TrEMBL record:
<keyword id="KW-0472">Membrane</keyword>
<feature type="transmembrane region" description="Helical">
    <location>
        <begin position="399"/>
        <end position="417"/>
    </location>
</feature>
<dbReference type="GO" id="GO:0005315">
    <property type="term" value="F:phosphate transmembrane transporter activity"/>
</dbReference>
<keyword id="KW-1133">Transmembrane helix</keyword>
<dbReference type="InterPro" id="IPR001898">
    <property type="entry name" value="SLC13A/DASS"/>
</dbReference>
<feature type="transmembrane region" description="Helical">
    <location>
        <begin position="340"/>
        <end position="364"/>
    </location>
</feature>
<dbReference type="GO" id="GO:0006817">
    <property type="term" value="P:phosphate ion transport"/>
</dbReference>
<feature type="transmembrane region" description="Helical">
    <location>
        <begin position="138"/>
        <end position="163"/>
    </location>
</feature>
<dbReference type="GO" id="GO:0005886">
    <property type="term" value="C:plasma membrane"/>
</dbReference>
<feature type="transmembrane region" description="Helical">
    <location>
        <begin position="423"/>
        <end position="447"/>
    </location>
</feature>
<feature type="transmembrane region" description="Helical">
    <location>
        <begin position="370"/>
        <end position="392"/>
    </location>
</feature>
<feature type="transmembrane region" description="Helical">
    <location>
        <begin position="21"/>
        <end position="38"/>
    </location>
</feature>
<feature type="transmembrane region" description="Helical">
    <location>
        <begin position="183"/>
        <end position="206"/>
    </location>
</feature>
<feature type="region of interest" description="Disordered">
    <location>
        <begin position="260"/>
        <end position="281"/>
    </location>
</feature>
<feature type="transmembrane region" description="Helical">
    <location>
        <begin position="96"/>
        <end position="117"/>
    </location>
</feature>
<keyword id="KW-0812">Transmembrane</keyword>
<dbReference type="GO" id="GO:0006797">
    <property type="term" value="P:polyphosphate metabolic process"/>
</dbReference>
Length: 486
C-alpha cells in the first residue's frame, strides 16, 4: 500500500513538474515574442500573433491548465497585445460553423450512447460462432458500420471493449492473437472510419471546413464520393494487417458451449444493462435511430438543393431535446468535451489573425528558405509537406487539433508551388488520421492500451504500419481515383 501511494505521489510530482515547465516555457515564448524587435519580413502585429500561436501550442501540448482556459487566454492575448483591432476580431474562430457543427455531432453521439443504441447495434452485428480471425473481421466490420451513426472513435472503442473481452474469454486461448488484434482494431483502425463521411468526426469536419474556406466549397455528398472508397480500402487493409501483426488464429472455432455463454453474456465484463436488455428496441432507441436517419437523409438531400450541412444536425438535436422526448438534457450538454471545442475555436481565431497580419506568409517564406522546395519534384514536395504534417501530428493528443495547425500551412505552401490543394488536403487527412506513434496521440489507442494487452512497442510499430498504408492508399487515390471523380 505504501509503495502504491509512493508511486502515485511520484507520478503526481512528475506531472506537476512537466506542467510547471510548460507554464514557464509558454510565458517565456510569449515574453520573447513580444519584446524582441521583429525581423524585417514580419510586422509587429504579425510577430505578436506568432508569439501567441507558439505559446498556445506549448500550453496545449503540456496542458498545465484545461484546454478551455488556455484557449480563452490565447484569444484574449490576441486582442490585449494589439494583434487585432477588437475582441470580436480576436474571437472570429468561435463564429465558424465548424465549432457549432462539432458541438452538435458530439451531442448526437452522446445521445446514441446514452440510450444504449450503440451497444445494441454492436451486438446485433456480431456473431458468436466464429474463429478468432472471423471474429476479428466481425468486430472491424461492426465498428465501421457503427461509425455511420456515432461520430466518435473513442465512444466506439469504449462500446466494443466489453464485447471484445467477452469474445476473448469465450475463445479461452492466450495464443490465438484475437485480443491483441481486436485492440489494435479498436485503437488504430477504428479512427480511420471517422474519415469516410464529413460528419464522421472532428478530423473530417476540420478538414472540410479548411477546404471550404481555402480551396473550394465541398458538400456532404462530395466528401462521401471523394473519401468513402479510399477510407474503406484503408480500413480493410489496416484490419488485415492487424490480423497478420497479431498472428490471429484462423482455425480454432468458438464452440457451441462457449457460444451459448457468449450470447447469454456469461463471460467477461459487460455493461450493467446488457444482461437484461429487452429483445426489441426501446422507445428512446427508436427515436434516436429515426432522428439520425433523418439527419443523414438531410445531409444527402441538402447537398443537391443547397441546404447548409449544419441545419439537419440542429434539427436532430432540437428534436431529441424536446420535453416530450428528453433524450438530450442539460446534463448531456454540460458533459460535452468543451475543451476540444474551445481549442478548435481558438486555433481558427489564431489562424485568422496569422493570415490578417501576414504572419502565415512569413512562416511559408521561412520554410522556403530552409527547404529547397523549388528544386524538388512534385512528389518529393508532397512527401516533405506530409512529413511536416506528421511531425506536427506526433506532438498532439488529437488528430483534429494537429490538422487545424498543420493543414493551413501546408496548403499555403502548396499554393506557392502549384500543388493540387484539394488532393493534398485529403491526403493530409488520411495520413495524419492514420498515424499514432505515441499512445497519447489518439484517445482510442490510449484506452485500448490501458484495457488491452498492447505494449508501447505494439502501438508505435502498428502506428507506422497504418501510416505507410495511408500513404499508399492516398497515392493511388491521388493518381487514379480522385481525378476520375473530382
Amino acid at each position: 500500500m505504501a509503495d502504491r501511494d509512493g508511486a502515485r505521489a511520484e507520478t503526481e510530482t512528475t506531472l506537476l513538474s512537466r506542467q510547471s515547465l510548460g507554464l514557464l516555457a509558454a510565458a517565456t515564448v510569449l515574453a520573447v515574442g513580444t519584446m524582441v524587435p521583429p525581423p524585417a519580413a514580419v510586422t509587429v502585429a504579425g510577430q505578436r500573433t506568432l508569439a501567441v500561436f507558439a505559446s498556445a501550442l506549448v500550453l496545449w501540448l503540456t496542458r498545465p491548465v484545461p484546454y478551455v482556459v488556455s484557449s480563452v487566454l490565447s484569444v484574449t492575448l490576441l486582442f490585449a497585445l494589439g494583434s487585432v483591432e477588437s475582441f470580436d476580431a480576436a474571437a472570429t474562430g468561435f463564429t465558424s460553423t465548424l465549432v457549432f457543427f462539432l458541438l452538435l455531432l458530439l451531442l448526437l453521439g452522446d445521445a446514441t450512447t446514452s440510450v444504449g443504441l450503440d451497444r445494441r447495434l454492436a451486438r446485433r452485428l456480431l456473431t458468436a460462432e466464429s474463429t478468432p480471425r472471423r471474429a476479428l473481421r466481425s468486430v472491424a466490420g461492426s465498428v465501421l458500420a457503427l461509425a455511420l451513426v456515432m461520430p466518435s472513435a473513442m465512444a466506439r472503442a469504449v462500446t466494443f471493449i466489453p464485447i471484445v473481452k467477452r469474445l476473448a474469454a469465450a475463445f479461452g486461448s492466450s495464443d490465438d492473437g484475437f485480443e491483441t488484434g481486436a485492440f489494435l482494431v479498436l485503437g488504430h483502425v477504428n479512427p480511420i472510419a471517422s474519415m469516410a463521411l464529413m460528419t464522421g468526426g472532428g478530423m473530417a469536419l476540420v478538414t472540410s471546413e479548411i477546404i471550404a474556406t481555402s480551396v473550394r466549397p465541398i458538400t456532404w455528398v462530395d466528401w462521401a464520393v471523394l473519401m468513402l472508397p479510399p477510407t474503406i480500402a484503408l480500413y480493410a487493409a489496416a484490419t488485415l494487417c492487424a490480423s497478420l501483426f497479431a498472428a490471429v488464429d484462423g482455425e480454432t472455432t468458438l464452440g457451441a458451449t462457449a457460444g451459448a455463454r457468449l450470447e447469454a453474456d456469461g463471460e467477461g465484463p459487460a455493461p450493467e444493462t446488457d444482461g437484461d436488455e429487452p429483445s426489441s428496441l426501446t422507445r428512446d432507441q427508436r427515436l434516436v435511430g429515426l432522428v439520425l436517419l433523418g439527419a443523414i437523409a438531410g445531409w444527402i438531400g441538402g447537398s443537391f438543393v443547397g441546404i447548409p450541412t449544419v441545419l439537419p444536425a440542429v434539427a436532430a438535436v432540437v428534436a431529441l431535446s424536446l420535453p416530450q422526448v428528453g433524450v438530450i438534457t442539460a446534463d448531456d450538454i454540460a458533459g460535452v468535451n468543451w475543451g476540444i471545442i474551445f481549442l478548435v475555436g481558438a486555433m481558427l481565431s489564431i489562424l485568422d489573425a496569422l493570415e490578417t497580419t501576414g504572419a502565415i506568409v512569413a512562416i511559408v517564406d521561412a520554410l522556403a528558405r530552409w527547404i529547397p522546395f523549388a528544386a524538388l519534384a512534385q512528389w518529393q514536395l508532397v512527401a516533405v509537406l506530409l512529413g511536416l504534417a506528421v511531425g506536427i501530428r506526433i506532438l498532439f493528443s488529437t488528430g483534429s487539433a494537429a490538422i487545424v495547425v498543420a493543414l493551413p500551412i501546408v496548403l499555403e505552401l502548396a499554393a506557392v508551388f502549384d500543388v493540387n490543394r484539394l488532393y493534398l488536403a485529403l491526403t493530409v487527412l488520411l495520413v495524419v488520421g492514420s498515424t499514432t506513434i505515441l499512445p497519447f496521440n489518439t484517445t482510442a489507442v490510449l484506452v485500448s492500451m490501458d484495457r488491452g494487452p498492447l505494449s508501447h512497442r505494439d502501438v508505435a510499430s502498428f502506428g507506422l504500419v497504418t501510416m505507410v498504408l495511408a500513404v499508399g492508399v492516398a497515392g493511388v487515390s491521388w493518381l487514379v481515383y480522385w481525378p476520375l471523380v473530382g
